[in-house]
Amino acid sequence: MTHPPSKVVKSQIVNGLSVDVEDWFQVGAFEGVIDRDSWESLSDRVERNCDAILLMFADAGVKATFFTLGWVAQRHPALLRRIVAEGHELASHGWDHARVFTMDKASFAADIERARKVLEDASGTRVTGYRAPSFSIDARTPWAYSVLAEQGYAYSSSVAPITHDHYGWRDAPRFAFRPLPWADLIEIPVTTAQFAGKRLAAGGGGFFRVLPYAFSRWAIRQVNTQDQRPAVFYFHPWEIDPAQPRVPGAPLRSKLRHYTNLDVMAEKLEQLVREFAWGRMDVLALREARLATELAA
Ligand SMILES: [Zn+2]
Predict the structure, then answer these.
(1) How far is the CA of 11 from the centre of ligand 1 (A)?
(2) Which has fewest Cβ within 10 Å: 101, 102, 144, 211?
(3) Per-residue model confidence (pLDDT) at position 3
C-alpha cells in the first residue's frame, strides 16, 4: 500500500509519540491463553523490533517515549541504553503488564517501584513517566494517582477516555488534567477525536493499524486544528512484526485484532511520523502542566 504525500503543511503543534515496549506474548488480548510462567520459553522479538523502530525514528528525525515493562528491561538492558543514547525518553509500563484495576494500592505501589528500579539501573536515567498496561487507570482505581505522586512521577499517560470492551474511562477529560489537588502530577490521556457528538479512539494501537491511514490523519489534524491541542499516539513493537509466532487457541476476535495489517504497519507509521510534528512525552507533559496552571489561574 502506498500513501500519497500530504499537501497540507505540518501542524505547528508538537504531538506526543510513544511506544509501549512489550513482546508479542505479553499483550492483554492473549493473557487468557498464554500463561505468565511460559514467557521465558517463548521466542523473544522485542529487541529486534525496537531496533527497527529506533532506525525509523532516526531516519525521520523524531524523538519519542518508550514506556517499557520492567520484565523486558531486566532482560534487555543494552536496548534501554540505546533508547536513551538516541535521545528518547525511557518511561515505565509497569512490571509485567498486570492491569492496574486487578491490583490493590499496595501491590500497585510494589509493581511500579520494582519496574522503575530495573529501568533506572539498566539505563542510568531517571524515570518520571508512567503508562498503565492497557490504559487501566479508571474510575475503579482512585488510589493509583496518589501512588504515582508519592513515588515522584511527573506525569502519567494511562487513560483512554472512551468506552471500549477491554478498557476505557468514558467520563475522563479528553486532554491533560491534574488528577490530585495536592500534587503537580499530570495525566495526559491518549487521543480521541470528537465526531457527531461521539468520542472516537484515535491515538493508535489497533485502531491505527486496522483502519485506513486517512482516518488517523483526519483525527490528529482535527485535534491539532479544531481543539488546538497536541495528540498522543502509541503503538507496540510487535505491531511491525508480521513474522511473529501465531498464538493457537486465542479467541477469534483477539486474533483478528492482533494480526490484521501487521505487514503494512511500518509503512503507515513512516508516513505518520513524517506528516506531523512529534516529540517526547515528558516534554509534552511540561507544556501541558504549564497550560493547566494558566487555565487554573
Ligand atoms: Zn501494554
Answers:
(1) 28
(2) 102
(3) 53
Range 239-260 burial, b when 16+ CB lie within 10 A, else e: bbbeebeebeebeeebbebbee
> Residue 227 C-alpha to ligand 1 middle, in angstroms?
27
User: What protein residues have CB closer than 5 angstroms to ion ligand 1?
Assistant: 20, 22, 133
User: How many A from CA of 134 to the centre of ligand 1?
Assistant: 5
pTM of the full predicted structure? 0.94
Within 10 angstroms of residue 12's Cβ, the number of other Cβ atoms is 7
pLDDT for position 248: 85
As a whole number of angstroms, the distance between CA 203 and CA 135 comes to: 12
Mean pLDDT for the chain overall? 92
pLDDT at 165: 65
- Alpha-carbon dihedral sign for residues 253, 46, 66, 128: positive
Residue matched to cell numbers 490528529: 220
